[in-house]
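Case 289 in the screening queue. Each case pairs one protein sequence with one candidate compound; here the compound is S-adenosylmethionine. For every case the pipeline is the same: read the inputs, emit a complex structure as tokens, and attach any notable structural observations.

Predict complex for case 289.
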Amino acid sequence: MAEEAKTTCYDGGCVKSFQFYLQHSGEHQAIFQSLHNILPGEFKRIGLDKSSLDVLGVGSGGGEVDAQILTVLQSTLPAVPITADIVEGSSQLTDFKALVAKITNLQKIPFAWHLMSSENYEKQVKAKGDMKKFDFIQMVQMIYYVDNLAGTITFYRSLLKNNGRLMIIVEAAHSGWDILWKTYKKELAVDAITEYRSSAEVIAYLKSEGLKYEEHAIPNTFDITECFDPSSKTGEHLLDFMTAKNHFYQSFTPEIRAGILDLLRSKCSTEKDGKVIFNSNLSCIFVHA
Ligand SMILES: C[S@@+](CC[C@H](N)C(=O)[O-])C[C@H]1O[C@@H](n2cnc3c(N)ncnc32)[C@H](O)[C@@H]1O
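Case 289 output:
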């Protein structure tokens, strides 16, 4: 089927900026650590009486988190065959394929690659009418980019098998990200992200629909001291990523820049030993089928 215009925003500069952020923030390590604690219990429940398990990753990027999830699943239920479908519209899908080629245990898993946005995958599945159902669907740090939160959760829940789970990892309510993006919504939520969502919006939606879920905290912080040194390249790259701009210093008026820096220091962070430590807590939400 011909792919329509919308792929994802994550090409070129966006990918580089995200990789820089990952190196600096320790975000993947924080996610991996929490998933290693949370997932084995979840997988034992999901896998009860199942002879095979089907997993779907949406917005998987370079696949580092998916690789961890699949590895935990294999070691929790070693006798159960697994399939993996991946929906990712950016060039990062190539990196994900290269990662799979390097990890021996993943080579046993048949992967189906869907190089398209979540919205186009939904259209394609609905047009075909034969929905492959899944035991576990994961969306890690991508719910900000989908057109419609409610529609996306409804669609992916409809793909869950009995006892399946949809796992959404998102910035936590009241985290530094949540405070920054909600305070400066008018200036920040103008490009790929037009409606900022933290766990607050996801949980509010789940509650409004009476859907069953569990939430786990994924604690994380990182050092943003260099953001306050205008000559620091690291500081500028971090500010670019955190405000989703190519050039923080050229993108805002001096008043807005000063306001953002003040907010980052006073409301989004704590200060310790002369360092400014940003609250980057995440939330891991398991939505029931
Ligand atoms: C912040 S990255 C997270 C990548 C990966 N899940 C991780 O945590 O390392 C966001 C990812 O969502 C993807 N994405 C953005 N909009 C999307 C959409 N509408 N449908 C599917 N994926 C999307 C991007 O291509 C990118 O890979």
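Case 289 observations:
- The first helix runs from residue 13 to 25.
- The pocket of S-adenosylmethionine is lined by residues 8-10, 18, 58-61, 64-65, 87-90, 92, 117-119, 140-142, 145-146 (CB under 6 Å).
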